[in-house]
């Protein structure tokens, strides 16, 4: 039991572990930002393709 407590204490004091956690949080925030940007882009392009489809169908009916 004492060895386990000592291991946890070493991990808490270890700066490499703290750095790894910080990098993990930064990566998670970057991934969330990318996902939000892709969702917004998907909504914009969906509207564009809907308008293109409508114009193509309208042109086909007139021709």
In short:
The radius of gyration is 26 Å and the shape is rod-shaped. The protein is mostly helical and 63 residues long. The chain is 95% helix and 0% strand.
Give a verbal description of the structure:
The protein is mainly α and 63 residues long. The chain has one domain. It is rod-shaped, with a radius of gyration of 26 Å. The mean pLDDT is 87. It comes from Sphingomonas gei. This is Flp family type IVb pilin. Keywords: Membrane, Transmembrane, Transmembrane helix.
Give, in order, the helices and strands: HH
By DSSP, the count of extended strands is 0
Apparent shape: rod-shaped
Question: How many domains in all?
Answer: 1
Helix content: over 70%
* Count of DSSP H/I helices: 2
SS content category: mainly alpha
Give the end-to-end Cα distance, rounded to a whole number of Å: 83 Å
| Unreliable runs | none
Name the average pLDDT: 87
Biggest β-sheet description: none
Transmembrane segments: 20-41
InterPro entries: Flp_Fap (IPR007047)
Keywords: Membrane, Transmembrane, Transmembrane helix
Protein name: Flp family type IVb pilin
Fold blueprint:
Elements: H1 2-13, H2 15-62
Feature tags:
transmembrane helix, rod-shaped, Flp_Fap, single chain, transmembrane, 63 residues, mainly alpha, 2 helices, 0% strand, membrane, Flp family type IVb pilin
């Amino acid at each position: 039991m004492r060895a386990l407590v000592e291991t946890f204490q070493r991990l808490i004091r270890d700066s490499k572990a703290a750095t790894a956690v910080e990098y993990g949080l930064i990566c998670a925030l970057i991934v969330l930002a990318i996902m939000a940007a892709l969702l917004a882009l998907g909504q914009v392009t969906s509207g564009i393709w809907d308008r293109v489809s409508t114009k193509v169908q309208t042109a086909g009916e007139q021709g």
